[in-house]
Design the sequence.
């Protein structure tokens, strides 16, 4: 599904990703952990096509197609979805209008007939229920006046509506209380199937306890320095990241 | 003196009715007033050439004009066509009196004489012209403590080749609550002036709309003017489309203590239209609050003028006044002339103002696109969102929906026209 090779990317002249390799197969859940500033969010932004981030080297293939030649919206229509660490407030554009435009664009790209307003509204209400946002939120401006947790749940709501192939969750668990965390994890789990893949960026093991990833990677200084199975997460929680950096063979100097 | 003005004065002299004394006083002032030029501050950015050259000799056929009420609004409807009031509904709610300006019963005449040209400041040239020429109009009296559930919806429209002058006076009694919609429509070659004077007694609440939805060759000059007595509340929304010549003056006078006025204005201009909004907020008493937000989208070769004045007098301590104007320009030839004016003579006040030319938020654009929404549609959504933010704040939900529909329809058409224009030149 996703194949990243030797990815080097920068923002404002500063190189953040310094040769990242990652392969995600259909149906897999990959967790990415790592210290602050290691490039976790940058990876999500680069994948989504955010313009300020410049790819200097390397390749990204998404379902065999070169992702780097695609516009932001083309990537989304191809099935890539990024749940943001800090979802934006857009006053004046209602959630409903925003969702309808996004769903219409998706269906058009897939060659499916557009939903009628009635169908769409009932689907949107269902999605609200799933993330426990009151349906009145649909009428409000996108994330306008939402709490941090409500914004994150709203991103998950979009994920439920858009049915992407690859979901990147960028610290979706930060700022959520335990109940909301469980709710988000349940939503994600409900979307898991043999075809859909997830990249979950997180600082905490707690989300991973619910999600049970297939792989855990440690990103440090713009590279993946260790990959392992689900048991790596509790190890990291216990020992931190420093011991990894000190392992022989790493170019990192202390 | 240009011929339109000369002709107007001659017509004014011939009017002799129960408002004669008021009219004569304004006529005397007019005789001492020079016709504005581009050097006249109040008309610096708005040319009156279209009015000076007014020629209705073409006589194009008048189309049927839709003056049907807004569905679901449950309003009390009053319609003027070419300045002529069609009818006053029978069985008005208790506590509401509506009279044609020409037929005000004796018992109401004293307060009407008091309020006529008593709220609207003298400096408005066309206000004075309206004083002398407006034989048509309405007088509306809302008795104290009455809570009117039905909005009063006044529609004015013009057919081709006509000129009309309307004056409306509204008295809102102590503790009364009312909604008044001044709705001006039409796109035919015409000229109207429409001035409305409101007085709000102690604790009165007025929800006010001035929908200046004329367009194209419909020239219009007018104003809405408000006196607020102690603890009175005004919530006003102005919407403008702009035409060959469109000018609105709003004066809000905080005369009693603890008054509250909110003024939101939205304009959406395209082609070569012109929309000029002058607002003037006077705080003469302590503890008043005013909050003014003005937002506009200006496309093509259109031009918006916004002059926002706040005047806090010496005794108006503890006043809180905010004025914010933001504009989105959609073309290089679009123009906005903004002048905020603050005059503060009290030392214990909080006052803020700002005027900006907005740019589209790149991050918001990215967010929308990251959900698969195309660049162009994302632009349209954010641009319209810029004014929709104020539509969202409109207290009457039915009217908000109606306005959102009107404005988004107009906005979509504006963009479609631009497209076909671009294709044609390719």
Sequence:
């Amino acid at each position: 599904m996703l194949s990243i090779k030797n990815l080097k990317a920068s923002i404002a002249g500063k190189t953040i990703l310094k040769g990242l390799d990652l392969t995600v197969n259909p149906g897999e859940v990959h967790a990415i952990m790592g210290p602050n500033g290691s490039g976790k969010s940058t990876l999500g932004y680069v994948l989504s096509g955010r313009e300020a981030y410049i790819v200097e080297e390397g390749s990204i293939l998404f379902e065999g197609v070169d992702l780097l030649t695609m516009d932001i919206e083309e990537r989304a229509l191809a099935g890539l979805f990024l749940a943001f660490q800090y979802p934006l407030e857009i006053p004046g554009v209602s959630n409903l209008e925003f969702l309808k435009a996004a769903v219409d664009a998706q269906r058009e790209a897939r060659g499916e007939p557009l939903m009628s307003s009635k169908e769409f509204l009932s689907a949107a209400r269902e999605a609200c229920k799933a993330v426990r946002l009151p349906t009145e939120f649909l009428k409000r401006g996108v994330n306008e006046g939402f709490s941090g947790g409500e914004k994150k749940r709203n991103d998950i709501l979009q994920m439920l509506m858009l049915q992407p192939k690859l979901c990147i969750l960028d610290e979706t668990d930060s700022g959520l209380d335990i109940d909301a965390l469980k709710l988000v994890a349940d939503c994600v789990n409900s979307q898991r199937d043999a075809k859909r893949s997830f990249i979950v960026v997180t600082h905490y093991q707690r989300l991973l306890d619910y999600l049970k990833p297939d792989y855990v990677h440690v990103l440090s200084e713009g590279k993946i320095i260790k990959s392992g199975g689900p048991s790596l997460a509790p190890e990291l929680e216990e020992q931190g990241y420093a011991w990894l950096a000190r392992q022989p063979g790493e170019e990192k100097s202390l | 003196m240009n011929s339109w003005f000369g002709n107007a004065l001659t017509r004014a002299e011939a009017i002799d009715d129960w408002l004669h004394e008021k009219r004569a006083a304004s006529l005397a002032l007019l005789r001492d007033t020079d016709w504005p030029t581009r050097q006249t501050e109040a008309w610096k950015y708005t040319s009156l050439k279209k009015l000076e050259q007014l020629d209705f000799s073409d006589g194009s056929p008048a189309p049927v004009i839709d003056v049907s009420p807004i569905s679901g609004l449950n309003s009390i409807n009053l319609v003027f066509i070419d300045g002529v009031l069609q009818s006053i509904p029978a069985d008005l709610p208790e506590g509401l009196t509506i009279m044609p300006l020409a037929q005000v019963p004796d018992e109401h005449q004293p307060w009407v004489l008091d309020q006529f040209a008593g709220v609207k400041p003298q400096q408005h040239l066309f206000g004075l012209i309206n004083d002398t020429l407006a034989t048509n109009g309405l007088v509306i009296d809302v008795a104290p403590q009455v809570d009117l559930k039905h909005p009063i919806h006044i529609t004015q429209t013009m057919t081709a080749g006509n000129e009309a002058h309307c004056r409306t006076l509204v008295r809102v009694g102590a503790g009364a609550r009312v909604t008044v919609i001044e709705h001006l429509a039409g796109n035919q070659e015409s000229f109207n002036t429409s001035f409305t004077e409101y007085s709000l007694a102690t604790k009165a609440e007025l929800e006010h709309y001035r929908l200046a939805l004329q367009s194209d060759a419909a020239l219009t000059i007018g104003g809405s003017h408000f006196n607020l007595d102690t603890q009175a509340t005004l919530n006003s929304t102005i919407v403008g489309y702009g035409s060959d010549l469109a000018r609105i003056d709003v004066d809000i006078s905080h005369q009693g203590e603890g008054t509250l006025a909110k003024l939101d204005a939205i304009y959406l201009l395209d082609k070569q239209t012109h929309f000029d909004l002058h607002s003037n907020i006077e705080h003469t008493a302590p503890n008043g609050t005013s909050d003014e937000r003005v937002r506009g989208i200006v496309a093509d070769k259109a031009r918006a003028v916004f002059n926002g004045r706040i005047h806090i007098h010496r005794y108006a301590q503890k006043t809180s006044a905010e004025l914010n104007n933001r504009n989105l320009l959609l073309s290089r030839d679009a123009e906005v002339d903004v002048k905020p004016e603050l005059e503060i003579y009290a030392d214990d006040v909080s006052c803020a103002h700002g005027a900006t030319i907005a740019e589209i938020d790149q991050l918001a654009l990215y967010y929308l696109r990251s959900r698969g929404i195309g660049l162009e549609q994302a632009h349209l959504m954010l641009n319209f969102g810029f004014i929709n933010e104020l539509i969202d704040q409109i207290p009457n939900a039915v009217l908000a929906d109606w306005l959102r529909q009107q404005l988004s329809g107009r906005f979509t058409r504006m963009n479609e026209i631009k497209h076909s224009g671009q294709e044609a030149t390719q």
Chain A has two domains: 1-79+165-178+194-254, 89-163.
